């Protein structure tokens, strides 16, 4: 299909082309589209541009006027770029004070500015381009409507008094931010830290207008580890939670709220910004003293282990977490996680996680925490030294200071209950995390301002006590399970409406008492209104049906009509499959979950003529895409009457940065054309081809040169092409934990991460079979607001590794050259040490060359012609061949090897019968590609004739010989003298 035909189906492009090619150019003036809603006291900016004049590079002049809603026919001149007295007196004073200005942006455009809006500035503004070039056809003015609205943004903080914490303690601050404007606006909230001595404050974490979380610079690591959070509660509460404060967190902390509005051109604009009062935080550094944490069941327990030592990035450690004497989990020196058998199920279910979050930092997380998790925890660290064979040697362990964890019960109740007049009221109070004995009291108040009065209570022994006011009523408390208390009140009346409270008192085994309460609202409906259920209707709506991964999705099920006890069921249909039930909300407030409740929140809002059931999807993923529906049934006299199901609502989930998100207002065809060009910025550096020698260590480097976000994590897989297919060598997940590796390669092949980040594949003692194509596959992971990681994109780079064998030029015709290739004479005294040297002066060398040396011996005075004295094989093993004739000599031999090519044989306390001929034999060995030893060459050194003389004989001879001072005849004179003294030897 040609480029032209691609656009023929799009009306949008036909309109654009007809405008561009309709004929001669016309003057056109354009101003920012309205209406523009701006806050009283805030600045106003309106851009205005003109096109179509003959001279594009000459400054054009502009004039601004306005009309007010009260008198739309009367124009008020404000300001002109070419006439200082253009404005009327009502605005001229503000122009001269520079409160109203006209700033030139280019020769053809200007920006109209009002520094601080007044209520009287509301109206329709007209920008006019002054024609100084003659008659031109076109539009010389453009209008924009400006609406001035009241400032309704309110920002306040929960704490403004100074706070002092110890290092490692938790900090929680709450910011209340809300706006009551009638316009559709979005709020963004950010927490800032202003350190002493710094000019600007730095953001800690922010919740953007599109409900995405962004950590500030310097806080990314703790955000990724879950140590810094920003949670939104209800409509206006934003909580900053820092699990472990650091000394660098000291300073003034405050929250900032910005109110955004979307202008008609689709751009977002900050109409007002406010800061809450500052809170001064002081953090005291600690030395790891005993700490204690108090949690409620279901919360998150995070145990941090920090290693304080030098050169930690160059060393290896094993880290384990223990509760008492029981080990929970351990991270080995290579990052492999092992979990104790009793915790393996919790790890599989995602309740236990452990990871290395930095060179010094390790984290263990238990979520949801259980009551059996309470106790005393420590972390133990073992330094690990890598041996020559790549095995690790464990050093002395070091224990951290203990941390005591206590887990308390939590109280839960249904949010709101509707009950028919005369029917029965059943309220459930569920207590999670029971450790000790419980007592429960049910209370009631008819109005929010009234005080609670007791209804009935049950103490620790199970004895119930009814309040005097309810003695005549049918009331009782039941305990269907150890953690569930139910209030049953029959024949309710309209006066029973109001707030009900469940007050729980827990006496722990240590004698301490823990009190908690929970409330719910009960509405008693008059029987006379029951017939109105036929008028009830159900509809499903949402403010947006296109969301990106990680964004919140809010669905609203509107039940119109009288308030009745209803059962609401939420479901979603994915593709062509049958609908999946998400949850069912019963009339008594009980929620039956069919999906993972960690991904959803439910909220009920009761209005005069309808009830809104909100389903909030937290941190959407692609799985949340599909068609949603809510079904409602009314409970009438213990009988469920089904209403007509709501409409289906289709939800589409896209990755960040896709065309469908950025151009959500564009036609479908344009979105389809643009989407392929908006991709991840991840890129990996090219890997050069490598040529290396067999039996050497090889490092292949894979470096990330571009990334989408500073908060990105990476998973790495190294592949090796084998028989036209790829084989995975080793894989690391985004937490740098090994998830896959070849068992037969673990001792030789490993992966290492360094700064950049850079990932190195290390091959030790390379073999011929290691050659081939290697591929580094990098996956980039981003984190959504709920803390879940998703794979954004993958990039692969490959290289070719060539393995060669060293010294191939000597494999077939190798000769060794020894220092003494010719025959040597050596004379020694009896009882002395005799040293024989066998040195190789040329030949192959290197870490892949190995030698075997054998010393041979032939006696002068016996038939022993070639006896093997001692052997040092190519693996370093020394052996003495069995021979009874030379056993005494072998016991006095010492073999040494000061260098790779030098071999010494020492004879301790030489005997006369040790005389004879000695020589060495050297064999060269190398490993082939199958790891088998191959003999490549062999050679022998020259003979060394050794004479060992008794002490008396050698002394006379030596004295006489040394007195002869003729260099060339020394040997002959000595021999003649010897024959004269001992004629029998002739």
UniProtKB/TrEMBL annotation:
Domain Ig-like: 41-146, 151-258, 277-381, 402-523, 536-650, 676-778, 806-922
Listed GO CC annotations: membrane
Alphabetically ordered keywords of this record: Disulfide bond, Immunoglobulin domain, Membrane, Repeat, Signal, Transmembrane, Transmembrane helix
Superkingdom as given in the UniProt entry: Eukaryota
Main location, first listed in the record: membrane
Protein name in UniProt: Ig-like domain-containing protein
Keyword Signal tagged: yes
InterPro entries membership: Ig-like_dom, Ig-like_dom_sf, Ig-like_fold, Ig_sub, Ig_sub2, Ig_V-set, IgSF_V-set/TM_domain
Cell compartments where the protein resides: Membrane
Membrane topology: Single-pass type I membrane protein
